[in-house]
Automatic annotation (TrEMBL):
Residue numbers of the full-length protein present here: 458 to 746 of 800
Gene: cadA
Compartments reported by the entry: Cell membrane; Membrane
Organism of origin: Bosea spartocytisi
Name of this chain's protein: P-type Zn(2+) transporter
Record-stated family: Belongs to the cation transport ATPase (P-type) (TC 3.A.3) family. Type IB subfamily.
Length: 289
């Protein structure tokens, strides 16, 4: 039978939108020494906005039109932001042919017979040469915490699109709270190292960047060598990482799918609820001992 303290913690948590799937999850959450957070949509709002368009080989509006055409077939948050900007600027585009997503890299497609790639500069340099001006532009945008999408048309770098996804308002205080509880916090992201360092630095946490989807799983296994690790992610593409962690917590209300793989959830998209969950778990275990 489930000890009364655990049953009480489960129902008290549920009332606050902190769901844990049973006693083993509470017991492991209480011993967690490190929380790994997905960046996009978990620590940040998940609503990036285009902040800069750098025209290199093409006019600004052409850069945006090529990018929107290939992003039209993508469900990635960056794609949505590019489309929103194209609509706002009344830039016309038709969805690309042969559109395909390259997980953790970007998207490709054919626009008016031209091969177009939109994605991470580190995966773009093999597709087109970057001159010193382009490289310096990428570096300064990334150092400002922006994600840069390189737009390549037929092997030429047409331009750069910079996007910024603001951290959630409670992210910095939540990380400080975890630290005060003796729990380390680290950010896991597919985004580049400079952008990740800028955002993680502002939040006062550690980071591991440029992780391909299976790289998050490998990073978690490594982190879990010393202490039980809690992974917090916002959804479907985090499912493998949530499953690989000692405790996987889905964040947000649209987490029905993630909840199947996860050990629990915080329903209100508040980063501070992760600290609240660990506190609750610790209190429940303290009452048993
Ligand atoms: P995250 O861990 O931040 O969710 P992903 O693994 O989805 O990142 O993608 C890693 C990187 O690949 C992104 O930071 C971005 O640079 C690039 N990328 C992926 N998909 C797209 C896209 N549709 N448009 C532009 N860039 C993309
Ligand atoms: Mg995410």
């Amino acid at each position: 039978s489930v000890p009364a303290a655990i049953a009480a913690a489960l129902s008290a948590g549920a009332r606050q939108g902190l769901l844990m799937k049973g006693g083993v999850v509470i017991e492991t959450a209480a011993r967690t020494g490190l929380v790994a957070f997905d960046k996009t949509g978990t620590l940040t709002q998940g609503k990036p906005r285009v902040t800069d368009i750098v025209a290199l080989d093409r006019e600004e509006r052409e850069v945006l039109a090529f990018a929107a055409a290939v992003e039209a077939g993508s469900a990635h948050p960056l794609a949505e932001a590019v489309l929103e900007r194209a609509r706002a600027d009344a830039v016309a585009f038709a969805p690309a042919a042969e559109a395909a997503a390259l997980a953790g890299q970007g998207v490709t497609g054919k626009v008016e017979g031209r091969a177009v790639f939109v994605g991470a500069p580190r995966h773009a340099t093999a597709r087109a040469p970057f001159d010193d001006w382009a490289k310096a532009s990428v570096e300064s945008l990334e150092s400002a915490g922006k994600t840069v999408a390189a737009v390549i048309v037929d092997g030429t770098l047409a331009g750069l699109i910079a996007l910024r996804d603001e951290p959630r308002e409670d992210a910095a205080p939540a990380i400080a709270e975890l630290k005060a509880m003796g729990v380390r916090a680290t950010m896991l992201t597919g985004d580049n190292t400079r952008t990740a360092a800028a955002i993680a630095g502002a939040l006062g946490m550690e980071h591991k960047a440029e992780l391909m989807p299976d790289g998050k799983v490998a990073a978690l296994r490594e982190l879990a060598a010393g202490t039980p690790v809690m992974m917090v992610g916002d959804g479907i593409n985090d499912a493998p990482a949530l499953a690989a962690a000692s405790v996987g917590i889905a964040m947000g209300s649209g987490t029905d799918v993630a909840l199947e793989t996860a050990d629990g959830a915080v329903l209100k998209s508040r980063v501070r609820d992760i600290a609240a969950m660990i506190r609750l778990a610790r209190a429940a275990m303290g009452n048993i001992r």
